[in-house]
Amino acid sequence: MSALVSPQWVASRLSSPDLVIVDATMPPVGVVPKVDTHALYLQKHLPGAVFFDIDALSDHSSGLPHTIMSDEAFGAAMGELGIHDTATIVVYEQGDVFSAPRARWKLRAMGAKNVHLLDGGLKAWEAAGLPLESGPVVRERTKFHATLDKAAVKDYHQIRATLAAGEQVLDARSEGRFTGAHPEPRAGLSSGHMQGATSMPFPHLANGASMKSPEELRAIFEARGVDLQQPITTSCGSGVTAAVVALALEMAGAPKVTLYDGSWAEYASRAESVIVKDV
């Protein structure tokens, strides 16, 4: 299955009842006032697209920003949106690569087999002169049979075991947050990084709204000393952009990729965590 699909590929399938299009745009971090991405979705979106609210579709009982919901809760939420686990699902976002890979990762981790990312997102769709719609979209309720793939996700105890074993961990946060030179955006959290982790800022893996080519991605990972054939865990601030790194690894051919769902928001909040600063 190809991770990315073109606007033309999607446009040619708009009439298919099997196609589900999902806008998974999150507000950009640090922008004040907060961008209302749902309002922007209502103004214009791909034909028939539903809005996948990553903040809302998270486990709020965890005390962490964006951890994945239970099987039952996620399945029910997807059913309400009219997303079936056997559908051909295309996820996109309104701006540059940021949050859509997280929605794709969630859907796949919960059992959807045929989930793609629209290469270039809404920007590429508009540039191609393809049709847009406005207003809310209500799809017929369906069933999503959700079963979490436990090999796709790590918890706190598993990430500590991963670090102790010397396995590869790639951190999608900025270099400044990774080294400890810049503060974390979440109050009360120390910046810095996990001992043995490798910095892999997610914007380096994309050209704006499009992911870089598999060849370019392999070169980036090689330059950072990443062994694509060995197990790799991705992390970030809250589990969102770790999915960008996971997508890039998938495109580069890495066979064993896991995402640390709690990411730095969890790790840095635990007193027993070892935090390394390079400044």
Automatic annotation (TrEMBL):
- Record domain Rhodanese: where: 15-134, 163-276
- Source organism's superkingdom? Bacteria
Q: Name one GO molecular function term.
A: thiosulfate-cyanide sulfurtransferase activity
Q: Which residues form the signal peptide?
A: none
Instruction: State the CDD domains in the record.
Output: TST_Repeat_1, TST_Repeat_2
Pfam families for the chain: Rhodanese
Q: Which UniProt keywords apply?
A: Repeat, Transferase
InterPro entries xrefs:
Rhodanese-like_dom, Rhodanese-like_dom_sf, Thiosulphate_STrfase_CS, TST/MPST-like
What is the protein name stated in its UniProt record? Sulfurtransferase
